[in-house]
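Aim 2 progress update. The chain analyzed this quarter is reproduced below.
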Amino acid sequence: MSLPERVERVCEELGRGHLPDLAREAGALPLLERIVASVRAGIPEPEGMSADLDSLDEALAALGIDGVTGADRSYEELPGTATHRPEDVWVCPERRCARGLPAAADGPVPVCAVLGTPLERVGLLR
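Predicted C-alpha cells:
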C-alpha cells in the first residue's frame, strides 16, 4: 500500500472520530498526533511517516485492531467488468492522500479530518 493510501486511511479513521481514543488506549496518541502534524506540514519526511504509520499499526494491533493504515483486505473489480463511475469526486485539497469520494450533485462538501479544510471537487476524465 502506498504512503498516500495509508494517509487516506488515517484521514478516514479520524473522520469517523474514534481513532484518537483508540490511539490513547494503545499508548500511541503522541504518535498519532505526530502523524497528523506531519500530514499538515506536507509530509516533509516520507520515510519517517512510513515508520510512524507502521508503529501506529503495531500499537493498535496490540488492542486487536488490524490494518488501520496498512493493507488488511482489499477489493478489486474483476477484469472486464464495467461499473458506473461518478463524473465528479471529492479529493484531498492538498493531495497528501489518495482519498476520493463520489460527489453527489446536492450533497454536503466533505471535510478533511486531518487538515480541517473542505475536500476539493474535481471532474474525472472518461
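The CA atoms of residues 88 and 105 lie 9 Å apart. The first helix runs from residue 3 to 16. These observations will guide the mutagenesis experiments scheduled for the next reporting period.
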